[in-house]
Amino acid sequence: MNKYNLDKIAIISKQLKYKGYKIGLCHGVFDIIHAGHISHFEEVKKKCDYLIVTITVDKYVNKGPNRPVNNHYFRAKVLESIKFIDSVGINYTYDAIESIRKIKPNFYFKGKDYKDKNDVTNRLIKEKRITELNGGKLIFTESPLKSSTEIINKSFSYIFDSKLKKFLVNKNKEKLLSNCINQLEKIKKLNVLIIGDSIIDQYDVVKPLNKPLKESILASRYLNSNIFLGGVFAAATNLSQFNNNITLCTVIGGDKDIRNKIKKIPKNIKKQIYVENNKHTTRKQRFVDDAYNKKLNEIYYMEDAFLSKKNSKKICDYLNKNLKRFDVVILLDYGHGFINKQIYNILSKKTKFLAINCQTNSANLGFNLITKYHKSDYICVDEPELRLAASNNYDKIEKIVKEELIKKIKCKNITITRGRNGSFSFNNSKVLNIPALISDKVVDTIGAGDVFLVITSLLYSIKSDQLTTNLIGNIAGALKVDIVGHSKSISNSNFYSILKHILK
């Protein structure tokens, strides 16, 4: 809506400042307005002549699954009705920086709860810096400001699954939160190599039509197409939110569209990419219903074959020369021929900490089993992959891992992801089941297991405990299912926000 336009409000602010008015600015989500907000606005209005409140647009709300409860237009309309507020604007960027930069307030107000808050994302530091650069001052209010999120989490039980709530009841949440933050800080500086298959994920959005009268097929109208980098590219991109020293190693085909996409990979990811010009990169084309975002059909374009001898030698030479500088190596085997015996033998002998995910799916016809890897420091597969590898569809997971899997694979750390049922971890004979963080808004499950793997791999490499490691993995996986394909990575700030809300 035009009346909530930030640029127009910025013009008003400039005009009023010229006349000597003191401009105040508050920014937030303001999902559910309560008495604490009213007290806050009343206090800040006494300190300025003209109060502007800007809100975060829906797509950048990082408060947990199913948030915001109210969309940005409804939130803006409610704020507009409060007598202490003179103007309301919608900020279409992910933080308050744009609001501060455009409005250039004399005072930027934050609730007193932010004063002593652990600013893990450095967001408050950035807001203070931009405020002062534009001639303003950051002020913390004294009014008690109860969190909307706290109210929502208590009032709406569907936000976090009841099993997870029950699981955390007797846990020292303060200590657990501190452990999580400390361990996440430690993994930032690890030197990480991610090696495995590259995949192009193509999402074709269609509008289903009526079934043709003379044929038993589903007809659809093509609307648009989106291409994302999957496989090791997606795994590395998501991990780059939590680590600053990532190198990815993979092979691509001669496809032109993948090269343009590679240029947009985050700069903190180093690329060791080899090209097979006579082949095409594995492409997974998915047809998606535009109304409900449901997959209707998938077509795979694959040229499954082992590496050329030339590229295999190049990669082996690279590994022999560089493996000693990596703290962690994550092997992602999607079963498309990239990982051969020569590569694995080098990795198994020379890697400080080797984590492996070996996917068994319809694309590799079920032939790609984790049991082909006889040695690793950490493996992570989902429950169907475990049961296929063990040829056991009936026994409990714990029995399969203890009596069958560890006899075939020398590995101290094993995690089985179970979707809505959370995760099962086996660490030096210690067993732990953690319920999932469940969102009612599951958009796409593609890549959730990979996100879980990459972040837990780093945590296990520094000997993080099971509870801390798998809780972090579960949250990361829950964030991924709210994203269509690999259209974007999970958000670091979103992760920390959810972590804190869970452990309050």
Task: List the keywords.
nine-stranded mixed beta sheet; single chain; 36% helix; globular; alpha/beta; 504 residues; 23% strand; five-stranded parallel beta sheet; Rossmann fold; 17 helices; UDP-N-acetylmuramoyl-L-alanine:D-glutamate ligase
Topology:
Blueprint: H1 6-18, E1 23-28, H2 35-45, E2 50-56, H3 72-80, E3 87-91, H4 97-103, E4 107-110, H5 123-133, E5 137-140, H6 148-155, H7 162-168, H8 173-187, E6 192-196, E7 198-208, E8 220-231, H9 232-239, E9 246-253, H10 256-262, E10 269-276, E11 282-289, E12 295-301, H11 309-322, E13 328-333, H12 341-350, E14 354-358, E15 378-382, H13 383-390, H14 397-408, E16 413-417, E17 423-427, E18 430-434, H15 448-461, H16 466-480, H17 492-502
Parallel strand pairs: 1-2, 1-4, 2-3, 4-5, 6-9, 6-13, 7-11, 9-10, 13-14, 14-15, 15-16
Antiparallel strand pairs: 7-8, 11-12, 16-17, 17-18
Helix pairs in contact: 8-16, 9-15, 11-12, 13-14, 15-16, 16-17
Question: How would you sum up this structure, described in words?
Answer:
By secondary structure, the protein is an alpha/beta fold. Helix content is about 35%, strand content about 25%. It has helices at about 5-20, 35-45, 70-80, 95-105, 125-135, 150-155, 160-170, 175-185, 230-240, 255-260, 310-320, 340-350, 385-390, 395-410, 450-460, 465-480, 490-500, and strands at about 25-30, 50-55, 85-90, 105-110, 135-140, 190-195, 200-210, 220-230, 245-255, 270-275, 280-290, 295-300, 330-335, 355-360, 380, 415, 425, 430-435. It starts with 5 loop residues before the first helix and ends with a helix.
